[in-house]
């Protein structure tokens, strides 16, 4: 399954609870698109959030994020990983 | 130990072997700054590469990347992770 790294901008001041709630909102519906969000990392100072997923396509990643209320600003396929 | 996500731009066409060699160059000297690069993900089409590390500071991450020949374009502390 292809891997994707997506980026959300503008989340300055995000708290641990807010990140967890957003991630849970993705997890609750991700299976409907065959997506799995493995990890999320947030920089509350810059407002950038990074999500790593396994998914059939970038579109599937975006559809889950949009339905969960947080559309991604960039979605990168990352076919190379270490 | 704080975690950091750094981004390298402009690596269009990067191959799996080149990513591995770059990562190995970091690993070879990372201990000198108390850094550990845990993972790297690359999108050879956009040229963006993402590295996740444990490190004492963003400066320590950058010093290792610079000495290894690939200065990062952005380094984000990511105190929140899931």
Largest interface: A-B, 26 and 26 residues
| Rg of chain A | 12 Å
Strand order of the largest sheet of chain A: 2-3-1-4
Helix content estimate of chain A: 25-40%
CATH architecture of chain A: 2-Layer Sandwich
The H-and-E topology of chain A, N to C, reads as: EHEEHEE
**General shape of chain A:** globular
| Average of the residue pLDDT scores of chain A | 96
Number of helices of chain A: 2
Total count of strands of chain A: 5
Ends apart, CA distance between termini of chain A: 15 Å
CATH superfamily membership of chain A? ORF SCO4226, nickel-binding ferredoxin-like monomer
Strand-pairing-aware structural class of chain A? alpha+beta
Q: Could you tell me the strand content of chain A as a percent range?
A: 25-35%
List low-confidence stretches of chain A: none
Q: What composes the largest sheet of chain A?
A: 4 strands, antiparallel
The CATH topology annotation of chain A reads as: Alpha-Beta Plaits
Oligomer: homodimer
What would you say this structure looks like, in words?
- Two copies of one chain form a homodimer.
- Chain A is of the alpha+beta class.
- Chain A has one domain: ORF SCO4226, nickel-binding ferredoxin-like monomer (Alpha-Beta Plaits), CATH 3.30.70.
- Chain A contains two helices and five strands, in the order βαββαββ.
- In chain A, strands 2-3-1-4 form a four-stranded antiparallel sheet, with helices on one face.
- In chain A, a hairpin with a 4-residue loop joins strand 2 and strand 3 (48-54).
- Chain A is globular and about 35 Å long.
- The model of chain A has no long low-confidence stretch (mean pLDDT 96).
- Chain A binds chain B through residues 3, 5, 14-16, 19-20, 23, 39-46, 48, 50, 52, 76-82, and chain B through 3, 5, 14-16, 19-20, 23, 39-46, 48, 50, 52, 76-82.
- Strand 5 of chain A pairs antiparallel with strand 2 (36-43) of chain B.
